[in-house]
Structures are given as C-alpha cells and as structure tokens.
Amino acid sequence: MVKDIIRNMRKDFRVEFREKSALQIAFSFAFIATLSVGLVMGGASTGARERSIILWLIMFFSAMSGLAHAFVREEEKGTALLLRLTSSPSAVFTAKLLFNLAFFLALQFLITLLFVFFVEGDVASPFPFALTILSGGTALASASTILSAMAARAGVRGALFPVMSLPITLPVLFAATGATAEAMERPGLAPGGDIIFLLAFSGAIIAVSYLVFEYIWIDE
Q1: Residue 190 DSSP label
Q2: How far is Cα 98 from Cα 92, in angstroms, rounded to an integer?
Q3: HSE toward the beta carbon, residue 170, CA cutoff 13 A
Q4: Of 113, 18, 25, 36, which Cα lies nearest the Cα of 63?
Q5: What is d(CA 79, CA 84) in angstroms, rounded to the nearest whole number?
Q6: Could you tell me the residue ranges of all domains in the chain?
Q7: Mean pLDDT across the stretch 186-201?
C-alpha cells in the first residue's frame, strides 16, 4: 500500500508540474485576489475580524479552484478505470489527500505572505495565527478531497463545486475566521477551542472519508 501511495503521489505531482493548469489557476487567483483586495482597501483601517474574513474567503475560493481537480482530472482523462485496477481505494485516497494537503499548504503560504504585505494585517500572536492557518487549511483540504471524489463521480464541474462544498466547509470558515481574528488582535494568545475544533474536524472528515470512499470510487 505504501508503494501504491508513493507511486500515485509521484504521478500526481509529475502530471501537475507538466500541465501546470490547476497550479497556475490557483496561484494566479490567490495573487490577483489578494492584490486586488489590498489595492481596493488602500490602507484603510479595518478591524481584525474584517481582515480575517477577507483572508479566509480568499483561501476558500483558492481551495475550490485548485483542489477540485484531484479526482475530476482522472475522470476527464479516462485514467480513473486504470487507477481502480492497479491501486486499492485506500491508497488512491491517501495519495490524493497528501497531494491536496501539500498543494494547499503551499498556496496558503503564498496567500498569507501577500495578505500581510498588501493588507497590512498586523499579527499580535504569530504562533496561534500560524497554527490556525495550518489547521484551517488541513480541514479545507481534507473536506475538498472527498468532495472532489463525489463531484467527479456525479459529473459536477466548475462553479458547482464551491456551491456543493460550502455547507460542509462553513463550520471550518467560522472557526478559522474567529481564531485568526483573535490571533491578529490579542498578543500572547494561547491556542484555543477553535483550533481544537479545526483539528477534530479534519480527523473526523478523514475518518469518514476512508469509510465511504470505496463506495464512491468503485463501480458496482
């Protein structure tokens, strides 16, 4: 199983860096959205809550534009059947999950740097802020992975994926914006309940995904 996971991850990274379509779309959207927000705000004074909401909206739509293709690409290119024959469902899902986590955490790093620079988002508590970004990103990537599998099997494309994902990821956005706002305005803040919720959400969604993925992925 470990060999299957490594082989599938290598294939995903190789295809992604060869085609660069989803990579370019996601990173371009993140850059343009963050830059546009910074220019529109024009140095205006805003509260930590408002800055936090803007930051996570950019991250949410960046995730939707970059993570939806994990399984959709397999169906569109006709490689899904070969993947079902050569790898176990658990290996396929684990490889896609790790790929999405790596992809989105790199995207988050770019978004956060641009946001702090252009929007002048002062961070009073850097460690809780970074922990919130990581735990919130993990939750979004975990949910997006299983949702992209469902979208691929149902034939959902484009703008319908964010609409389908929003009800599932809404609790993540609420918790992440609250924890991020507190980290921005309260110095010496310790990691709190919102971060624990985000980590618990990630664990729960991953556990449920492993239980249901085989029924989603395999044709009966």
Answers
A1: P
A2: 10
A3: 5
A4: 25
A5: 9
A6: 2-217
A7: 82
At 122, which amino acid appears?
D
Cβ atoms of 127 and 188 closer than 8 Å: no
Q: What is the pLDDT of residue 65?
A: 76
Q: How many Cβ atoms sit within 10 Å of the Cβ of residue 207?
A: 10
Closest C-alpha among 89, 51, 71 to residue 178: 51
Residue 76's alpha-carbon distances to 23, 45, 80, 81, 197, in angstroms, are: 17, 46, 9, 11, 35
Taking a C-beta distance cutoff of 8 angstroms, is the pair 145, 67 a contact? yes
Say if residues 144 and 67 touch (Cβ distance below 8 Å). yes
The mean predicted confidence, pLDDT, of the chain is 81
Listed residue (58, 54, 56) closest to 30, CA to CA: 58
What digits encode the pLDDT tens for the residues 202-215? 999 999 999 988 88
Residue 61 has pLDDT above 90, yes or no: no
Find how far residue 120's CA is from the centre of its chain.
24
List the one residue out of 84, 80, 219, 194 whose CA is nearest residue 139: 194
The rounded distance, in Å, linking the Cα atoms of 156 and 173 is 23
Structure tokens belonging to residue 14: 């190789």
Of residues 83 and 130, the one with the higher pLDDT is: 130
Please report where in the chains the tokens 């959207």 appear, as a residue: 29
Choice between 45 and 123, residue whose per-residue pLDDT is larger: 123
Question: What CA–CA distances, in Å, run from 204 to 43, 46, 146?
Answer: 40, 35, 12
C-alpha span between 153 and 144 (Å, rounded):
14
